[in-house]
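User: Show me a protein chain along with its predicted structure.
Assistant: Here is one chain, sequence first, then structure tokens.
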Amino acid sequence: MKAIILAAGFGTRLYPLTQNIPKALLNLGSKTLLDHLVGKLDRFPILDEIIIVSNKRFYQEFVDWKKASPYRTKIRVINNEALTPEKRLGAVRDLELSLRSFQGTPESFLVFCGDNYFDFPIGYFLLPCLGHSLCTFIGLYDVGEKSLASQYGVVEMDETGRITRFDEKPANPASTKVSVGVYYMSSGARLKLYEYLDIEKQNPDRIGDFFAWLIGKESVYGIIFEGVWFDIGSKESYEEAAKYVGHAPVR
């Protein structure tokens, strides 16, 4: 199994913090945001490679980070060749780029948006995925208030945990359960990615739009996490996460 970390954004909403450093390499406590995630993934021998998708502007920063990283798991950095925000490919196209070298293989993938911090254990998400490897899973978090949920991808689920609806930033959310940018893609979902981008010509920008489309094509299930989650999308959320990490117990 491979893990893909989508980290090709330019972080314009965090300027000036991210004018010269990618968002994923911002420090939270004594570690970067990326180290918090990769440190969790490195604990699982079943993951034999971690793939980080970068833009061209910050590619060398990720390469330098990789050279200094202490992790056991193989790490590969991919350059999507986008030099400016106006030239970005979009998260779905970045995902497709990271999967090209695995065409025709039975590999499954964990996919992470690189601008999230969470303290829940990856194993809690991984175990159901391994037990139902032909299904697709989305990591969820209950934000508790619909006014907060409207800022994210909101889901509805049936009694089996199957997601029946996925709306990106709805004005009137149907629930308070939102996607946290953690996904498991089956081999079937990988084929659907090609259909989504190159046959139906759907939006390549937001990763949530792909999974919203996918629930109409195959079974997609949600796994609700408990713990703390921060979407590092603004200076305010970054400061809140940094404050939490500075006071949180070591896990």
